[in-house]
Every structure is written in C-alpha cells, then in structure tokens.
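Lab meeting prep.
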Amino acid sequence: MTTCQKPEIEIVDFDTFHVTDVKYSDVIVNGSMNPEIRTMELGDENDAKTASISMVSLVENLIATMQSNKVIQIAGTYTGHDINEAPITLSGKIILPAKGKIKNMIVVSHWTIGSNRECPSESFQLEGILASKGYAVVMADYIGYGVTANRIHPYMHLSSTATSVVDMALAVKPYLKAIGREPESEEVILVGYSQGGSTTMGAMNIIQNQYSKELPLKMVFAGGGPYDMAATFDIAMLEDKTGIPCAVPMIVQGINEGCDLGLNLSDFFKPVLMEHLDEWVNSKKYTVGEINAMLNARNVSDLMTDVGRDKQNPQTAKLYRELMWNSILIFSPRAPLYLFHSIDDNTVPFINATKAEEYYKGQNVSYDFDHYGPHQAGAVKFILKVYQQL
C-alpha cells in the first residue's frame, strides 16, 4: 500500500485483548438517541442541522428493529503493529448487545477525530448502535489516540491505520470466545465512513491477502472516503478550498510521520499554523470542530505556503508521491462491497466516488451515490443505510 521502507515484520501474539473498562448503556433514552452517543463533528452549523434531520429517520429505524436497547461497552488494550511493524500496545472498544446471541463481528474504522475524548475507547461512537441489532462492534482507536495519545496520529497513512484495525479484530476474536459471546458466524463485516471509509478499504485489502481464513469477509460498507488522495490534493489546490481545515495539517504531518519522509513542516505551513500546530492538533485536546474554529480558514492558501502547494517543489513532490501510494484504488474486492457517497459532499470531494466507480467497473461493487447533503449529514445517512441492510 505504500513505498515506505519497513523492517521485516515481527511476530505479534494476537490473543492479547485486555479489558480496562466496562459500561452498560442504552441506545435509546426516552424515545431519542442517547445524548452520550457521539456523531461526526465538523463545526459546520448547516451541515449539523441537516444531519439532525437525518438522525430522526435513524432513531425511528432503531426503535422499530433493534434487538437489544441495552449494550455493553468494553474498552481495552491489545498488541498490534507500530508504523515500523514492531509490536505496540494499542487500544479500542468492543460494543455488544447486553444479552442474546451475536450474529457477526462488525469491524468499524472511525472517521476523523481531533481530541482524544472522541476516540472509541473514550466515547460511545455512533457506529456502536449497530450492536443493537445483535452484532459485536469492534472499533480501534488508531495509533495516536487512546493509550498512544502522546504520539502524532499518522493520519491517512493507510497501511498503519488499517493494520491497527485488523490487529484489533484478530485480538478480539479469541476474547469473545473466551467470555462466551462468540458470534454465530465467523464471517466479518467491515464498516467505515470518511477517513474510516478509506481505512475500511485498506483493512479489506489486508484481510484478503493475509487473514482470509481468520477473518472471512461477508460484506464491506465504505462511505464518503478519500480513496484517491492524490486526486483529493489536486482538487483542493485547484479550488483553493477545504471543507475540513484541520485535515490540511493532519494529512501533511500524518504522511510525513507514517512514511518517515523527514519533511520540514515549516516549508508547508503558514507561520500561524506552525506556531500553534502542537497545541491545536497534536495535544489531542480539541475536537475537529474546535480545531477548525481556531484555524478560522476555508482556503488552503490560508494554511499552506506557496511552496507547500507546488508539486514542482521537490519536497512537495515527495509528499505527493506518497499520497498516490496511500490511495486505496489498488486491489479487487473478493467480498461484496457497498460504496456510498453524497454528491453534495463539501469535505471529501465526490471525485473520490467517481474514481472508485471507474476503477471497480465490472466488479462485485454496488454504488449508492445521491444528494444526501454535506459530509456530516452523509455520515448519518450512511449509518442508517448500513443499519437497514444488516
């Protein structure tokens, strides 16, 4: 998936999930979604209003078809692979129906977050509601969140992030068997939106090539993902705008970190951003919406230098090359794949969906592209669509 040079993979014992916290929660409280459940946050008021309208339909479906309103949130740690493939302790959460049989394990790759309190092990993410239909939902924090919050998150570095997701699924599988909550079927379902959409596709590729027996795939749901990072970069530079300002510094430093490019970030970021990068982004204190508000920018040129936006510059060319290698349109799906994208998406350009449709032409892929509103609203629509199809 990437040109990054790595040493030989060390052996990791996947039977390592250790519980750190257990909490019982209701999905629906007094006819409404439990207020503890976190939805996507971008800081766009119009997008949030559209998302809240979509949430009404989601709640109606939950009430009508859920098998268990009460779920168990089990936070814990596991041994996975670091960016350089060495063993590392990572964290995440399992969400189970409080009672009853479990159909399958659903492995969720979460969307872009900013603060550590947004990560799965520290919160009740929206995707966790899928447990109410009788599934075991498994969500990794990724490197840079949870127990590794002191690290820079290798944002959009596909191989390390997707590997964290797969590693957790492998660690959780024997744990569920040990506690008597083993799914009835060994087949696994993958789900992810936005950053999670791309990561889910990366996880699919890893599982197909390395763990098809351990984690046989039943279905994959990917929505609103930046599948072609180079094309996303190009359109952002051409239009000089971004629907998610915090992603600009996160992508540059994330790829730099994940591929150990040794870039001088001051060549890429304007002085104000460079001055506040560690506090606003790397401290993990602030949510995506809060970071976007502090950046107070909608134009890429407000955040990046002329040199950083010029692909003819050697350092930018090095970054761009890795963006191409960290794109996911590089493999053929062996399980049914559902791709969702809103045509109105102002955060992850719709070109990602059209590129994917072009690449997967004639393969086992179904497409759901329509006017589903901006990115945040699309997230709710996507979860509703997944919920309905399970």
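Slide two material, second protein:
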Amino acid sequence: MKQKQDITAKVLENLKFGSLNEIQNAMISADLKASNIVLLAPTGSGKTVAFLLPLLHQLNAKTTGVQALILVPSRELALQIEQVFRSMASGFKVNCCYGGHPMKIERNNFSEPPTVLIGTPGRIAAHLRRGSFDPESIHLLVLDEFDKSLELGFSDEMSYIIGLLPKIKKRILTSATQAIEIPEFSGVKNPVTLNYLTEENRPNIVIKAVRATENDKLEILIKLICHIGHEPTLVFCNHREAVDRISEILTEENVVHDTFHGGLEQDERERALLKFRNGSHQILITTDLASRGLDIPEIKNIIHYQGANTEEGFIHRNGRTARMNAGGTAWLVLAEKESVPDFLTISPIFINLPEQIRLPESPLWITLYIGAGKKDKISKTDIVGFLIQKGNLTKEEIGLITILDNASFVAINRVKARKTVAAIKDEKVKNQKVRIAISN
C-alpha cells in the first residue's frame, strides 16, 4: 500500500497536479477490490489518469515483455494517452501503434518490448498476426472509449485480440455513453461500475446561438470568429469539404487557423493538433474526428457550424470544452430558417453580432521545426540552450516544446521568428547539422 501511495505522489508531482479528483480516487479504490472495472465518465473528467494510475500500480519493473495493453478507437487518442503516460515519468517503456505510418518502424520498436502498449484494434491485430510481440505476458487490459470502438466497427478485431490474451488479471473498460451493452468477448464479467455520467458531472457549458440572414452561414461564422477573438476555438462541420471551404475563406482573410479531418495525412493531423496545443493557432476547423480523444484543456469555444446529427454527437463535441471544471461556450450557427435541435432541453441565448468586425490578431506564437528528435538524443534543455545562445531568444520567447522520435517542434515568439531562423539556419544543434524552418 505504501508503495502505491509513493507511486501516486510521484505521478502527481510529475504531472504538476495538486491532488487527484473524485473519479481518479474512486478508480484507485475500485482497483483494490475488483478485477473488472467499468468507468462511465464524460470527456474532460480526467479519466486517462484515472485508469493509468491503477495500471501503473500493477506493473512490475523486474518483468520483461508487454504487461499492459490499452486499446483505443483512434490514433489521436492513442497518441494522447502515450503523451500522458510519458508525462508521468514512471520509467516504464511505452509504445504506440496505429495506422497511417510505416508498420516497419513499430516492428523495430518491439526489438525491446514496451511495458505498456497503446494502439488501435486494427494495427494491434495486424502486429499479432505477424508475431511482432508475445501476448502471453499481458496481464492488464484497458478498453478506452469502448463505445466508440464498437460504433466504428472494431468488434471483430477486439474479439481476435482479447482471444489471444490468456493471462489477463484485470480489465478496465471506459465509456462516455451510458447505454452500452458489454459483449461477451470483452471478458468483463460482474464489474464494479463507476458511473459519473450524471447531471451534476455535465460540463459547465453555456449554449449560445447566432442566426444568419439570407442563409449565408459562412458570413456569420466569420463574424463570430472575429467576435470571439483570441480564445481557443473548435469549429465543427459534418463534411471535410465544408472544412476546406471555410479554411479557404479564412486564408483569404489572413486569419491564422488550421484544419483537421480524415482526408489529411496522419503527420498533417498530428502537426495541426501540436500547433493548436502550443498556441500557434487558436482556431481549428474540423469534422467529428476531433470530437473524441483531443485533450486540450484550454479550449473555450465550440462552434457548431453544421449541427451534430444526434444528441450524443452534440455532447461529445461539447466535451472538448469546459474540461476539468472549467467553463466553456457552445455556439450554434443557424441559417435564417433553421431550427434549434429538438434534443436541446434549454433554449440557447441568441447573440446579435456587430456589423463592423475586426479580424483577430495573429497569435503570439509560431512553430519552429527542428529536424532532430529523441532518436538523436535531443532534449528540451538542448533546444532551449540552442535558441537562447544562437537564436538570440529569451526564455520568455520560447513556448511549448514537443520532441518526437525524429523531429522537434518549438513555439517561439512570432515577431522574432524570421530573425531567429536567419540566425540559426546554418548552426548545429548538439553538434548535428539539421534542417530548421518555420513549420507550415
């Protein structure tokens, strides 16, 4: 018990958390009593840490091979969980597997198997068929956002994977939907259920609306974006064509933003999220692909440019804001004769936007690309020192740093960006000549 308390205290310190929230404490208590746990919790409730902590308590540093498998419905969620686990600084190796990038890289990473493996059902099943890793050592299974995995049709892959795990001692299933039937293949029987999908746990969201004249929703959207100004905002559309059309208009108006949808390459999507997190842009135009798995606590506004088709979809979109007890605003953009969705139980507050608008100023930050990463033994300290000594930046002019396997991305002061790049373009980072440029 003392060892688990010490692990928890260390994780809190590494994550810079003051304390655990109610859901996280409940999960630790349930972990002491049950081999099967079902966590029903809204997005933004801290559920990732809630299931990672009990998992961490069960890992054995003296054992080799994969000990814990976390299955998720999307690559974005897989990457997010990996990032949180790395931030815990537990000392255990973690790998992330998902479609959209070369399988060979992932297979090479299995030469020294991770303790924790995170992945999408399709890619994990593919690795198992190829014998990339031995499933015999896995004794912990997490099915995160299981409802979404079922919705996306991953039942066969999950059934295949779980059928190859003979030594599972603990199963944790999470869902953001209450009306979920747990299939037999999951192996989750007689679970302890923690249900936080209650009215008092709903996000603190104010719902507002703007109405277009003559059905010109695009014009009213631009006005709304200008009205919101500098607050981090997600704009939801139902189709990627609408995302691209809005992006073209914003580009013509010189409004800094980015896009996120399934038609983009994986590295483009990852870069869009990375730049959103570090503040290089504060407007992300997206499809429902972003309604799950994005953990960006500072999002203040959700704009429904095209309305969600169901109440559940509406809730999941809104779950990107008002996270961890913060407040947020959900905006409906309605055509002249478009009705408020029937599933809304409260009437939105209609706002009249001013005729004269001012375009938002560019964000403080812009992202710098450095062509070296973890595999080149580059650290955040190396990058900060390099930018201060060679790039003539101060610490205050350097923002969030993200180091990937083969590249690094750094938020730097937008005004200083050109001079900084000119000063460092021919310099070496840690005695290595690497490509440095403003990330597009």
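Talking points for slide two:
The first strand starts at residue 36 and ends at 40.
The chain has a mean pLDDT of 88.
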